[in-house]
Amino acid sequence: MPSIDEEINRLQEEIHKTQYNKATEHHIGRIKAKLAKLEKTKEERSRKGGGGTGFFIKKGIYPTVALVGPPSVGKSSILNSITNADSRVGEFDFTTLTIVPGIMEYKDMKFRILDLPGIIEGANEGKGRGREVISVLRNVDLILIILDPFKFKINYILNELNKTGIRINQHPPKMSIIYNERGGINITTTKNIELDMELFSAVAREFGVVNADIVIRENLTVERFIDGLLGNRSYIDALFILNKSDLPEFREAFESLRKENIDPVPLSINKHKNVTLLKSKIASSIKMIKIFLQAPDKENLNNEPLVLRAGSSVEDVCRAVHRDFIEKFKFAQITGKSVKFPNQQVGLDHIVENGDKLALFIKKG
Ligand SMILES: Nc1nc2c(ncn2[C@@H]2O[C@H](COP(=O)(O)OP(=O)(O)O)[C@@H](O)[C@H]2O)c(=O)[nH]1
Ligand SMILES: [Mg+2]
């Protein structure tokens, strides 16, 4: 029997040599489904094959931003410049062997920035501790892809992210699946959407779906349909940064990225150019909300609003206020967009919204 890698290569070659047209569309779709399935098996096996548990980054109160990119492009220098951290900067590749965190402040917001070891080709298969590095990325709020005039080939970075199930600057596929006991696969679409139903049913079957109602609400590619079927992808926004704008080689690299429709933020950490622009781009890329804390008698507390990432819960608010508050929590009363009536009582898992006024009631002692 051929190995998984051989089989993957064979299928990739087949896609490569098959001319894409109406007649072969279906055939190619089937091969892509087979490929995705093999990649999944391979990924599961490599996970089981040891290699430690990897880094695990807990979601903190502040939004988390990861610096990724090839070695020596200036990731550690950027961390040191925009945060309070002190990460080793070096002439050599791989000066950063572990994850170094720092806190960046911008206006009234705080962000946790992580400096990660450089991503090299094959990271997804575990080279250069890449797998552990990439697993961290699945839980961050924003990825900064850092490049420099000598290392600005982004394809392999995007490939590594892709293979790990990270989709950058994409929204999740607009589709839903309801699994049934019987009835086969029924795919329906909303209006103006044309898909090869036979192909999509075949792909769904390939992934073990037998009976299901699938509703598709956008023109999906086979790849995105598979993402939707697997349902375990992380959709994360990314910004591209081209560092070392002080060097003469910068312009050419900048232009060639622009030709690929990538619009990088030009930066020079050494000459301190565009550092504030970078901070403001980070801040505006993450959706944040403001919460106003009130005393239990609804007296407005004279504090600054609490700035949290969108989608935060009452538990996140508690954590941001005082670490004892979650344990001592009784209930919260909220007035604002997240509730139906003023002073509505809610629990820890209630999701707050921008502008909410919130009073926390805690156990004494
Ligand atoms: N010319 C120039 N060199 C830089 C700039 N930023 C960083 N470097 C240099 O690039 C090298 C690698 O930097 P480092 O922060 O360790 O990169 P990392 O491996 O991505 O963390 C060091 O020699 C830095 O001094 C910059 O804006 N311009
Ligand atoms: Mg470094």
Tell me what you see in this structure.
- With 365 residues, this protein is an alpha/beta fold.
- The chain has three domains: 4-48 and 173-230, no CATH class; 64-170 and 234-285, Rossmann fold (3-Layer(aba) Sandwich), CATH 3.40.50; 288-362, Ubiquitin-like (UB roll), CATH 3.10.20.
- 32% of the residues lie in helices and 22% in strands.
- It has eleven helices and 15 strands.
- α1 runs antiparallel to α2 (22-48) and α2 packs parallel to α6.
- Guanosine-5'-diphosphate (GDP) binds at residues 71-77, 89-91, 95-96, 118, 243-244, 246-247, 268-270.
Total beta-strand segments? 15
Residues in helices, as a percent range: 25-40%
Tell me the name of the CATH homologous superfamily of the largest domain.
Answer: P-loop containing nucleotide triphosphate hydrolases
CATH topology-level fold name of the largest domain? Rossmann fold
Radius of gyration over all CA atoms, rounded: 24 Å
Compute the number of helices.
Answer: 11
Low-pLDDT stretches are 49-55
In the CATH hierarchy, what is the class of the largest domain?
Alpha Beta
Heterogens:
guanosine-5'-diphosphate, magnesium ion
Distance between the termini: 67 Å
Strand content: 15-25%
Annotation keywords:
binds magnesium ion; seven-stranded mixed sheet; alpha/beta; 365 residues; Ubiquitin-like (UB roll); single chain; five-stranded mixed sheet; binds guanosine-5'-diphosphate; 3 domains; 22% strand; Rossmann fold
